[in-house]
Design a protein that fits this description.
It is a single chain. With 174 residues, this protein is an all-alpha fold. The chain has seven helices and no strands. The radius of gyration is 17 Å and the shape is globular.
């Protein structure tokens, strides 16, 4: 049975990572990518352990908060039946255009296989998305604008956040 085999392998990976002193939350955040890219998964878990050990966790917290907002709104796009995609001509506000420009920069300029570079690149997205969420009413009354914004965030989730572990599973002290 495939499910039993998957559960067995997942438990073995978790057990192995536990012997290497990875925290349970770093392991859980990486489990989804372990199936496709096991070595990258181990590298991310190690990188996250280092980040969690830093004296200032502000950068990691801001990445977690921003990715959570994008993922939550991306889920609303799926719940509302939005098809993947968006139309840039429907962007009404500068913050929407700025976010699109920065995402294009990230996708063209950042090597997602270089974990520190991907992390630093994501840090550069944070101020743009903080402004985006402060100024842009994603759940606009106009259905076409709302669905376009949700579609954009869904595309960010798929094109950018899918390259990262599930950071929502990380436990960060307050």
């Amino acid at each position: 049975n495939r499910d039993k085999l998957d559960a067995f392998v997942e438990q073995r990976i978790k057990s192995f990572m536990g012997t290497r002193n990875y925290s349970y939350d770093a392991v859980d955040s990486e489990m989804a990518s372990m199936w496709s890219y096991p070595l990258t998964g181990f590298s991310w878990a190690e990188f996250l352990m280092e980040k969690k050990g830093e004296s200032s966790l502000d950068a990691l917290k801001s990445i977690i908060e921003t990715s959570a907002r994008i993922k939550n709104l991306s889920k609303k796009a799926k719940d509302n039946g939005s098809k993947l995609g968006y139309n840039e001509t429907l962007f009404k506000q500068e913050e929407e255009k700025d976010a699109k420009i920065k995402i294009d920069w990230f996708l063209k300029s950042v090597d997602i296989n270089d974990i520190p570079a991907a992390y630093d690149g994501f840090l550069e997205l944070i101020p743009v998305f903080v402004r985006y969420f402060e100024k842009v009413m994603v759940m606009d009354e106009d259905l076409s604008v709302r669905m376009n914004r949700l579609g954009f965030l869904q595309s960010v989730d798929i094109s950018v956040l899918s390259c990262f572990p599930n950071l929502n599973k990380l436990s960060i002290p307050k």
